[in-house]
Design goal:
two-stranded antiparallel ribbon, mainly alpha, 58% helix, single chain
């Protein structure tokens, strides 16, 4: 896992991204881009394995209530597919 440390408050703020949950609410996730990239490098193909790995890594940097695990993992998978499945289709 990467251990990127921001040099200043502005850099730290850029490391936080919004994630839309299935109910339409949004949450701030620290290191989301790095987490998605790390999981993409694992080349997992099973959706459940991808969700589990994404959630595990998100919990390193962010608090996720146990009751919200399913909502977060679904939203993370959706964002993962949006970013990395598009790149695969484009051949990048």
């Amino acid at each position: 896992m990467t251990s990127e440390k921001p040099c200043c408050a502005a850099a730290a703020a850029r490391m936080i991204k919004k994630l839309a949950l299935p109910d339409g609410s949004q949450v701030a996730i620290a290191n989301l881009d790095s987490i998605l990239k790390e999981v993409a490098h694992l080349k997992l193909v099973d959706d459940n394995a991808i969700k589990k790995e994404l959630l595990k890594r998100v919990k390193i940097y962010n608090y996720v209530a146990p009751s919200a695990d399913n909502e977060y993992s679904e939203a993370l998978l959706k964002e993962y597919r949006r970013q990395y499945c598009e790149l695969q289709r484009e051949g990048k």
